[in-house]
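User: I'm curious whether this sequence folds into something compact or stays loose and floppy. Could you predict its structure so I can see for myself?
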Amino acid sequence: MKLHEIAHARTGDKGDVSNISVIAYRPEDWPRIVDALTPDRVAAHMGGVAAEDVTRYVLPQLHALNFVIRGALKGGVTRSLALDAHGKCLASVLLDLEL
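Assistant: Here's the prediction. I'll summarize afterward.
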């Protein structure tokens, strides 16, 4: 099962920082998401992002996790030569994570 089957994401970016929120579709899937999405696992899945650059905030009342990922945008959206390095693309990458 892929994460996108039980959750959706919202994103934002500012400079070189990407902010990705993962929100469960159903409250009963919330515990599985919390257990599966550790900062280490998110960093490994994103490739090239160090685990210490990923901060996870738990929002149980919303059945959501918020990840702040520093250095994810290769210098910032307007400075990067990478194609589609925006937060929305990174959210798609994260939602493709195998649970």
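Summary: The first strand starts at residue 7 and ends at 14. The radius of gyration is 13 Å.
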